[in-house]
Amino acid sequence: MNLSSAGGILLAFGLYAVLHSLLAGAGVKDWATRRLGAAVVQRCYRLFFNVVGLVSLLPVLVLVAWLPDGLLYRLPVWALPFSLLGQLAGLGLLAASLRQTGIADFLGFSQLAGPAAPGGLVTGGVYARVRHPLYTGSLLVLWLLPWMSSNTLALIVAITLYFVVGSWFEERKLEKAFGRAYQAYKERTPAFIPRLTAPRNS
Fold first, then answer.
1. 33 forms bridges with which residues in the sheet?
2. N or C: which terminus of the chain has fewer CB atoms within 10 Å of its end residue's CB?
């Protein structure tokens, strides 16, 4: 494993994570609201956040492709169907989550038409089985790749750590917003490993 390449990727992703976290925090959004007005921020901030997140991730991906690398493993042919099934399950989880919460809202397109009413706490559907289906689905797709190189592993480890840390901060905000209702949901619903059946009170 090329430690210098892995270190460079981890550092680059760390810088990306800091930028992404700052933009997701209330401070930057409040600053933009004071400068641009609430109406502009409510309409445009989500889309701006996603575009900046995508563009700032590109240099990290370039490093993964450009830095010296080495193949760690390639799955044997007999294991490929299991890998594919797991990745399909991850994609299904992603699709179900986005369908439930609204992909246009997630991307920031629906907000361009006007600020939406504040959403309630979502605990049904796929969210009755796992609290972070977007993270779980993404991790299934990434960790079940049929091959793994040093650089790819470094990137996936960085993403996994960011998801774990990010989910902690997200849940703090949700507990502040929804109080005991979110705490009860958190107690009955696993964070990353989906339960096979939904609880009756979801």
1. none
2. N
